[in-house]
Amino acid sequence: MSRKLLHLSASALFIITFVLFPKNISLSQETSPFPKYNAVAEYNDVSVQSLYVPMRDGVKIAIDVVMPKSLAAGARIPAILDMTRYWRAESGSRPSSTARFFAMHGYAFIMVDVRGSGASFGVWRGPQSPEEIRDEGDLVSWIVAQSWSNEKVGAMGVSYEGSTAQMLAVSNHTAVKAIIPEFHEYDDYTDIAFPGGILADEIIRDWNAFNHQLDEGEGCAERGCLQSCAGDYFQGR
């Protein structure tokens, strides 16, 4: 595969992640992410709570719990995990249209910064590292211990988040009932790092630089930074 095609493939991944599924949509602009699903929402609004959840080794993982607002006392609902390496939220941002959709239809939608990324502590050692996969099982255990949980958990996502969703099955947790990887890398080694057996050094270097910009760049917590980073990343390519 040519380097030009590799860049086009990488560009497509970021277009899917940052354009087709924007993180920040104002309430006035919001439309359903699932227009063919016509069921009436059970709730009129959502609540958001940002928390740190300690893992088995004490490392704290940052999450946002988007819930139906005014959930009745004693009500128990299922949860959906969305676990990303690209910041679960930005300063001043609202929950995504997908998070709001599910919360207003009676789910807890939980957005997660994987270990070592975003506001989470620890060290990020690469996509779907053993530590990251074990964290997913710990998060499920935390969810089912909550008073609002009906002990049914699913996961979904696109690209990196699709892969983290898929890896949730590795936990073999009895509460995991559904996984929807809308798009994911089937095999990071053959799909990205060594397509056709040839090292794709340029895309690996550029993707690493993009992640470094997210983790170390000044102002990366500001609203709109993720889309700006993605735009800068591919400028002139």
Helix content: 25-40%
Number of helices: 7
Indicate the low-confidence ranges by residue numbers. 1-29
Shape by Cα distribution:
globular
Q: What radius of gyration results from the CA coordinates? A: 18 Å
- Top-tier CATH class: Alpha Beta
Q: Structurally, how many domains make up the residues?
A: 1
Termini gap: 16 Å
CATH architecture: 3-Layer(aba) Sandwich
CATH superfamily: Alpha/Beta hydrolase fold, catalytic domain
Q: How would you spell out the order of helices and strands?
A: HEEEHEHEHEHHH
Report on the biggest sheet: 6 strands, mixed
Summarize the structure.
The chain has 237 residues and is of the alpha/beta class. It has 7 helices and 6 strands. Helix content is 34%, strand content 21%.
Protein architecture, described:
The chain is of the alpha/beta class and 237 residues long. The protein has one domain: Alpha/Beta hydrolase fold, catalytic domain (Rossmann fold, 3-Layer(aba) Sandwich). It is 34% helix and 21% strand. It has helices at residues 3-20, 97-104, 130-144, 160-167, 188-193, 201-216, 225-234; strands at 46-54, 60-68, 77-84, 108-113, 149-158, 176-183. Strand 1 and strand 2 (60-68) form a beta hairpin. It starts with a helix and ends with a helix.
Descriptive labels:
alpha/beta, Rossmann fold, single chain, 237 residues, 6 strands
Task: Please give the structural blueprint.
Blueprint: H1 3-20, E1 46-54, E2 60-68, E3 77-84, H2 97-104, E4 108-113, H3 130-144, E5 149-158, H4 160-167, E6 176-183, H5 188-193, H6 201-216, H7 225-234
Parallel strand pairs: 3-4, 3-5, 5-6
Antiparallel strand pairs: 1-2, 2-4
Helix pairs in contact: 1-7, 6-7
